[in-house]
Records
---
Amino acid sequence: MSHSHSSRVQKHIGDPISEKPAVDQEFLEEIFNDIQSDFRFDHELNGCLNCGICTATCPAAHYYDFSPREMVQLLWTENLEGIYDAMQEKIWACAQCYTCAARCPFKNSPGGLIMLMRETAIKHGMESAKSVLRPFSRVMLKLISTGNQLAPDMITPDHFPDWGPNISKVDAPLKLLRKAIPMATLNTTATAWEVNLKTSIELYTIWEETGVLDQLETIDENLFDVIVDIMDEKREDLEDWEDEQEDENDE
Amino acid sequence: MADKHDGDERFTGHGAEWRDSNLSQEDAQVATAWVEQKIDRRSMLTNKDRVEDVRDIMWQLEKDGEIVVHRIKDEHNPVVVKTLFGWDKKIPTNQLWHHKSCGQCGNIPGYPTSLLWLMNEMGIEYLDETDQTSCTAWNYHGSGIGNMVSLAAVFLRNFHQAYMSAKAMGLPEGHFYPLVHCGTSFGNYKEVRGYLLHSAELREQVKNILGKLGRLVDGKLLIPEEIVHYSEWVHVMRGEIAKRQVVDTSKIRATIHPACHVYKMVPEDVVYDNDVLGGNRVAVSTGIMEALGTNVIDYSTWYDCCGFGFRHIISEREFTRSYAIDRKIKVAVEEANSDIMIGHDTGCITTLDKNQWIGKAVGKDYELPVMADCQFAALVCGADPFKIVQLHWHASPVEKLLAKLGIDWDEKKAGFEAYLKEVEAGNQENLYDPRKRITSGPGYKRIEQK
């Protein structure tokens, strides 16, 4: 930890009134070091006078027990227990609008700091991350295996009953309505646009090389297994096509 | 609210040196009123002396031989606009590579089709192809799955493809310049570009990955001179678009929802125009709506987000719909007596359009049509509301707006239903030659550009 001599840094005192067992100090330090060692940390935290402008303008603060000012203060004062506690639920309330960052007189980015905390929660497989991300698995399956995050077949009245009966104002099969869109890339139902096979494999290589698949395996092993199977098949398809091309070129 | 306290209750996070000011409630209100200011241009200008122009680093890295810059050339017919601090930004207007948005294409297809239709009307050359992925930033901001290296690699892979794409038609590299459709992609790419330019370590990590993908130019990373949002193209083309207008809009009262990831992320790169709302608000969308003759009406929560929240729209929908209705739709209707709310981003249009119907359950039935600026522009320039503007995918009552514009919804709908029979028979119309969409890999056949 840096600045441990500074008066702004809070001492580790544990939680004197909680009946829960204290979280191991070394683990708390590891969590904080993961957040602090990201090269973005120093860009996104420059100081804090507790002015509260971030919280005054925060949409999540309207509806949740969440305050970007509190998050910044926890990190600024290196309040390790507070940081760990916030990662159990509060960090998932942020709507990622960056209104806080646009307004902060110190040019802090509370929204950006939240992302560092979310990444760290995932790295450590925290229960909060697992439960919060369970409804997100459909999106991740789509994105990681196709290169598209959202697809027309995900927008159905079954999935979004609160969007009402007017999701489509023309009564016709989805496939036909998609075929009637005058952009050839959009005549699809399982992806938002037609993604080249080679392209989706390039993206999958990026996921492999950047540790994103490891993150996914930590959070949802079953989803990880499904995606690996799908992508193995896609890679075989591309290899078959490349072999065919070589054969054609040889002839 | 977490920063209030009752009795002896205290919340952590104030720091050891914090002391209560013991102000009365009234005095506290006076002392903190300044934080309730809106995010107008003036409030953001206060940081000017501490903001750097990352493009300076970019040019230096190019000079040092470390990167290649994808330049906006005369052939792209650039128009120069001013950003927040009066800096110049080049907006290319021709030879554009459409960087599509997954949320638009999957959910609001009239968004990209309207844009391409406007380009066809003006004879703009473009490419819409299959060698493109989502930017992956919606997933990242929603789930935390991903990281700066993955976001940077996805950004540079897509932009490298934009640079190389014209070779599939026998044209030179750099012929097409990427035009980003989604506001989140736009904000994310600008943020990532800044980090790439600042961090040699990040550049090295990403370079290794792009090298494996064969996505380097002369062994170097390719960085775009500018990252350009479609709304900036619409803004600089607004005069040309207005020349093609065939529907009178002078009775329309429009409210604008500026997108957070368009103007709050990397705010120094955002277009401000002294002729649009006195140069005190982001110029895009308002500029085109004024050029088309609508009455753009102000409302007190214009700076608020829409409530999309990335993960909230999927798994915390109570938040999304409450925020969308109470902070945006209700205010636009009750304060501004708005006929339409116009946006310029994927998540905002989805949120504001889809989350109105549920309000009926609690007597909040405001019925405000919602669409993107380019959809409205295409509509009043004569585009078919179904075939081109694809308004049947909108849940908000767009029929009301069409009636006010004098466009017969039922007649157009009947025409579209007849057209669907043609589509079933394999006779669908396209905005461009569909063969161009494949530029490599399975299905690719070279088409020479005339």
---
Amino acid sequence: MSDSPQWFDEEAGPVVRPYALIRGRTRSSGDGFDLVATVRAVGDSPGELGPEQQLILRAARSPISVADLAVELDLPVGVIRVLLGDMRDHGLISVTSPSAGGSRSNERILKEVINGLRAL
Amino acid sequence: MDSVLSDDPVALKILIAGGFGVGKTTLVGSISEIRPLRTEEVLSDRGIGVDDLDGVEAKTTTTVAMDFGRITIREGLVVYLFGTPGQERFWFMWDELSYGALGAVVIADTRRLTDCFPSVDYFEQRGTPFVVAVNCFDGADRHSVDDVRIALDLDEDVPVMLCDVRRRTSAKEVMITLVEHSLRTLTSAN
């Protein structure tokens, strides 16, 4: 066995570096998206989308969280947020903040969670 | 029991905190489908000075992998677990993680109790409900629980419990204790 590391295929990292996907930007209107905010595809997908945007639209046909999207696409959260910000600005997706529902202050939901955990 | 059906799924966040190697990853894995979440963060001012940036002055982002777990209670009601990055230079990430969080589990190891001081301080200051779970590494007993409560100078209402993070039933018990505690905090505030 050779001592020098040999990286092949996926181990060598993505062919396109994550930040090249978003043209080097680290900021977008998606900065504030919570990790557990809900993303949904809305409207029809235009033809000229990049592969990552298409994957996001496909994954978001049913509601999905920002964190789950990052895992699904195997991209850092920061990159996902930039992509999502652009996509929302173009009316392709909706993003719902979890705090908007005030879920923390909902007694009924917490009781449901307790029962659900017991049943696991 | 009727569930009010709503378009918006409810997503709840629970944070798993504690010192390095205390069992955060194991706890998340015991109770949920665990997946690594990659975050690439811009180093904050707080990170500068802690990170050794000699020779890499141009580096302004750092990759952080977080443990991320999901428990589906029912369709439209999901609990997300986030293992908080252990190093203090990632405090800035905690602010985001703890925003709107249902609560936190601080895992303690009686052999290195000081490791969990920063987590306890943090959640006390933020007013985030938390429980302290003493991981039984070396036969910790009931005595350990009392010692931990005194050593951490915890409020009476903060639950302290023994646990074995490798066991699903134990992990479940910790989660239930936390949500019950959050519920009590909530109802006493109203």
